[in-house]
């Protein structure tokens, strides 16, 4: 049986250092939406495939973007 796809929320991405600009530029539209498990009346969560996020983080273009955005190399 194949593994179930794993998703990360925009909030989770921001916890990894992503910005709204980076999400739009490197990931584009979300892969799935889901009800917010914490607040029933909140807007749906935008979820992205973890494999797609990890692939984007490995590109030279993304690495350069993060270095420039932070004013220097990440330590």
Highlighted features:
three-stranded antiparallel sheet; alpha+beta; 75 residues; single chain; 3 strands; globular
Architecture overview:
The protein has 75 residues and is of the alpha+beta class. The protein is 41% helix and 15% strand. The protein is built from four helices and three strands, in the order βααββαα. The chain has a three-stranded antiparallel sheet with strand order 1-3-2. It is globular, with a radius of gyration of 14 Å. The mean pLDDT is 87.
Topology:
Blueprint: E1 7-9, H1 10-15, H2 20-26, E2 32-34, E3 45-49, H3 50-57, H4 60-69
Antiparallel strand pairs: 1-3, 2-3
Tell me the strand order in the biggest sheet: 1-3-2
Structural class of the helix and strand makeup? Answer: alpha+beta
The global form is globular
Number of strands: 3
Percent in strands: 5-15%
Biggest sheet details: 3 strands, antiparallel
Brief write-up:
The protein is α+β, with helices and mostly antiparallel strands and 75 residues long. It is 41% helix and 15% strand. The chain has helices spanning 10-15, 20-26, 50-57, 60-69, and strands spanning 7-9, 32-34, 45-49.
């Amino acid at each position: 049986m194949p593994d179930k796809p794993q998703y990360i929320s925009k909030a989770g991405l921001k916890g990894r250092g992503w910005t709204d600009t980076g999400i739009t530029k490197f990931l584009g539209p979300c892969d799935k939406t889901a009800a917010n498990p914490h607040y029933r009346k909140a807007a749906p969560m935008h979820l992205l495939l973890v494999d797609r996020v990890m692939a984007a983080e490995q590109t030279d273009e993304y690495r350069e973007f993060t270095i420039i955005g932070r004013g220097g190399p990440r330590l």
